[in-house]
Design goal:
Low-confidence stretches: none
CATH topology of the largest domain: Rossmann fold
Strand order of the largest sheet: 1-4-3-2-5-6
Structural class: alpha/beta
Shape: globular
Strand content: 15-25%
Order of helices and strands: EHEHEHEHHHEHEHHHEEE
Distance between the termini: 44 Å
Largest sheet: 6 strands, parallel
Length: 283
């Protein structure tokens, strides 16, 4: 039976648990999560274990990145199942603070990221989101003080925002983004996939198929806007309410007009039923 990782719920307990690793000069990797772990998260853990001696996984459903109409209250929470999976994955430490620990009474400091955080993608539809993400991730980085932090590329704009935030604040760690883990039919793994009905799940892979088709056509030299317009139609025909399908510079997320403006990343967000899905792909 796999040994259960240390579980810390307060900052003093976390720092006490980390102290023996630091005393031995062992490298530390952090995998930030909101729980409801799936094989995509475990792929991040596996990469973390390749890059550091000790692995910390944070589990915190961050209230500041949810708007009042979003799914904070119903977001999947499976803490014991998550800990069991992390035990089997041989994670060293789980950092699981409560909202009161992360945002104690009198908390008054929040980050306001710009650059990729104001690209007109997720921020257009969730204007509260990246301020909440940048604030909580900066706290996680400060609390754990890892050598590396591992994120998935599925939340691509978030990855760019967090990478820039760490650079701008001179935080002494490396942010690493790993390719999206997918189901056999291409659907990006997400904790929110559990919301999909059987019919919606059947339509969901259209997002990835459209991204692949658009990427291939753009790479072959077809006009970007024409390709994207046809992709948008394909997605809406599959019963999605489309928020965006755009081509952006892979680092700055600035709009691009041709492959000469690259490297290019395609990004999509769309809602089917009550479930909002996002995905992205390099051209």
């Amino acid at each position: 039976m796999a040994s259960r990782p240390i579980i810390s719920r307060t900052v003093p307990a976390l720092r006490k648990a980390l102290q023996p690793y630091r005393a031995k000069r062992q490298t530390i990797a952090l995998v930030p999560t909101m729980g409801a772990l799936h094989s995509g998260h475990l792929a991040l853990v596996k990469e973390a274990q390749k890059r550091a001696k000790r692995v910390v996984v944070s589990i915190f459903v961050n209230p500041t990145q949810f708007a009042p109409h979003e799914d904070f209250g119903s977001y999947p929470r499976r803490f014991e199942a998550d800990v069991k999976a992390l035990s089997e994955a041989k994670v060293d430490l789980v950092w699981a603070p409560s909202p009161a620990v992360m945002y104690p009474e009198g908390f008054a400091t929040r980050l306001a990221p710009e650059g990729a955080a104001l690209a007109g993608l997720e921020d257009k539809f969730r204007p509260h989101f990246f301020g909440g993400v940048a604030t909580v991730v900066s706290k996680l980085f400060t609390q754990v003080a890892p050598d590396v932090a591992i994120f998935g590329q599925k939340d691509y704009q978030q990855l760019r925002v967090v990478t820039q935030m760490a650079k701008d604040l001179d935080l002494p760690l490396k942010v690493i983004g790993l390719p999206t883990v997918r189901e056999k039919d291409g659907l990006a793994l997400s904790s929110r996939n559990v919301y999909l009905s059987e019919l919606e799940r059947g339509h969901a892979p259209v997002l990835y198929r459209t991204l692949k088709n658009c990427a291939a056509r753009i790479k072959a030299g077809e006009p970007i806007e024409m390709v994207l317009e046809e992709g948008r139609l394909e997605i809406t025909r599959a019963e999605f309410a489309l928020d965006y399908l755009d081509a952006r510079h892979a680092l700055s997320l600035a709009p691009v007009a041709s492959v000469k403006d690259g490297p290019i990343r395609l990004l999509v967000a769309a809602k089917i039923g009550k479930t909002r899905l996002i995905d992205n792909l390099a051209v």
